[in-house]
Structure formats: C-alpha cells, structure tokens
Amino acid sequence: MGSANGLLKGWKTAGPRLMILIIIVLQALGLGASWPQEPTQPRIDEEITKQEKIYRSQGADVPSGYVTGRALSDYLELLSSSFCDALGTLSSSDRWLDIGAGSGQAILDYYAPEDAPPAQKCAGAGGKVRAVAMSIEDRRTDKWQQRAASLGDERIRYLSGKRLRQYSAEELGKFQIITDVYGGFSYTEDLSVFMEKTLSLLDIGGVFYTLAQGVHLEDGKEKPNTWYLTELVDAAGRDVKVCSWLKKTTCVKVSCESKADWRPPIEAFHVQKICNDVTVPPLEPLHYQAGTPPERRFKLVNRAE
Ligand SMILES: C[S@@+](CC[C@H](N)C(=O)[O-])C[C@H]1O[C@@H](n2cnc3c(N)ncnc32)[C@H](O)[C@@H]1O
C-alpha cells in the first residue's frame, strides 16, 4: 500500500474519533457543538450525477477501478463458495439474472462453446440455465453479439438502459439464481429498495449471491486501518454490520463469508428466499460519494418513523 494512501486511510478511520473528541471539548466549554451537517439530498444528487458519468464512460475515460469484464472464475473466487454447485443443480429451463453484469463476460464463460479450453463452467447434468445480464449502460462486445446469435432462443439476454428498480415484475419474470458482483448492491444509493426489488424477483428456494467490500465483517476480523466503503448505523449512530442488517429481513436465510485477507476486505452474502412475505429493514442514505464503488453510509430507520 502506498504511504499516501495509507495516511489517507488512517485519517479516514481516525476522523470520527477526532470529531467526537472535538465535540466533547466544545460541549465542555459550553459552545453547544453538534455533529456537522450530514450531506443533504442536493449533495447526494450531485454525487449521483458524477456516478452517472462513470457509468457512461468509454475508452480511455473509464476509471481504472471500474472493472466491467470479470470472468466467471472471478465470480467463483468472490462469491460464496456454494455458487458454482448451485448453478450446476439447475435445469435448462431455470433462470439466472446477473445484476450489474458489465460486458457479461461471466455469462459468456458459462456459455463457452463445448470445444473451448476446459474451464469451470458450473453447468450440471440438467444443462445450462437461461441467463440475463443487466447493466445500466450497454457494454456488450462483439463476442456477446455473436454468441447470443449462435445460441438463439434467447438463451442469453442483455438488458440495459435503466436500473434494476425501473423494471416491472412482468418485464423480468422470476429467477432461481441472482448474482451481483460489484453491481447494484455495491453502487446503489438506495440499498434497502434494491434488496427488496432483488428478492421480489427470486422464486421460493432461489438464492441471491452478492458481496460488499470495505464493510464491517461478520467475523470482525478486518484490519484495524480498514477504509470502510459501505457503512450502516442504527438510529443511535452505532455501527451495524451489513450481514446483521440482511439477517433482519423476513422470509430469507442469510449466510455471510468474511474474506478478511482481501485488500480491501470482502464479505460474500448468500441470501435464500424461503417464503413470499419478504420485508427488508428500511435504510435511509446519509452519505454518497461517487466512486468505483462509491462510498456510502446509511441509517436504519424505524418502521414507525
Ligand atoms: C463495476 S461494473 C461490474 C461489472 C461485472 N459484474 C464485473 O464484475 O465485471 C458495475 C455494473 O453494475 C451496473 N449497475 C450499477 N448499479 C445498477 C443498478 N441499480 N441496476 C442495474 N445495474 C447496475 C453498472 O451499469 C455496471 O454494469
């Protein structure tokens, strides 16, 4: 890690503690200090506009951190360990949605021609599932177009031009597996709405596989100087782990795999829908700063609020 980067990360983790100290001192002096104003909605809107530019970027303008062509092997490394086997148990009439698919490389690898060099394709005896790649911007390559045409029968589809929440249930249908690797789950400014929409598209028994980097890990084993990218707090301002928040959702079974040795640390989530009455604990955005992925902070809101 570069030293400037390290210093920056150190400052970011020390910042809140320093701020608390300043507030305590000011209050002791009777100066009535309070928390600095959280960014207001117009500020968040400004950052969303910057984020849109990242989505639309092409060629040399694409920021280096905005990776849109991860292979299926990357998905296998990043997602929960059961992902490949789960795909392998499905049949050719089942469906896989990849939210935030970028160029759709993971789906292309899964659908590699039989004579392609041996690769982990995760296809079981039941054949290959129908796959839908979703991306805000169209990042299809010639390879995608050719493969889609040669497979025919809409075995692989690519949807672009809008965000997940803008699709109706009828447009998308139901899925047995949904993945999201640095897609909407990492980029949305409205995480609870995103989760609710995603879970509404799963069949009962279906699984949502996703991940988040720079979060408070379930096993608490991240390094002390971790730069948190997605933070959740409760109404009293106390940290809430993303895994704990997901586990408060009704009608799902959640397991979390902490990957503390990754830089930054990663948590992989396996969220299985077990009944239809899904309610995701609502979150309110407090902070959003455009990036790859963006820096976000959310507050858990009481349903009564
Ligand atoms: C960094 S790329 C990741 C691409 C791919 N998963 C990979 O790992 O190479 C982010 C992708 O998420 C998509 N995305 C972000 N927010 C989204 C949302 N709310 N709905 C649908 N797609 C979204 C972007 O359009 C883009 O395709």
Average residue-wise pLDDT:
88
Profile the largest sheet: 7 strands, mixed
Question: Cofactors and ligands present?
Answer: S-adenosylmethionine
Helix content: 25-40%
Quick one: overall form? globular
- Structural class determined from secondary elements: alpha/beta
Distance between the termini: 43 Å
Strand content range: 15-25%
- Radius of gyration of CA atoms, rounded to a whole number: 21 Å
The helix/strand series, from N terminus to C terminus, equals: HHHHEHEHEHEHHEEEHEEEE
Count of DSSP-assigned helices: 10
Beta strand count: 11
Across the major sheet, the strand order is: 3-2-1-4-5-9-8
The unreliable regions are 1-14, 22-37
Q: In words, what does this structure look like?
A:
The chain has 305 residues and is α/β, with parallel strands linked by helices. The chain has ten helices and eleven strands. The protein has helices at 3-28, 41-56, 72-78, 83-88, 105-110, 142-151, 169-172, 184-187, 191-200, 242-247, and strands at 95-99, 130-134, 156-159, 175-180, 202-213, 230-233, 239-240, 252-259, 266-273, 283-289, 295-300. The chain has a seven-stranded mixed β-sheet. The chain has a four-stranded mixed β-sheet with strand order 7-6-11-10. Strand 10 (283-289) and strand 11 form a beta hairpin. The model is unreliable at 1-14 and 22-37 (pLDDT under 50). It binds S-adenosylmethionine.
Any key phrases for this structure?
disordered N terminus, alpha/beta, single chain, seven-stranded mixed β-sheet, four-stranded mixed β-sheet, 10 helices, binds S-adenosylmethionine, 305 residues
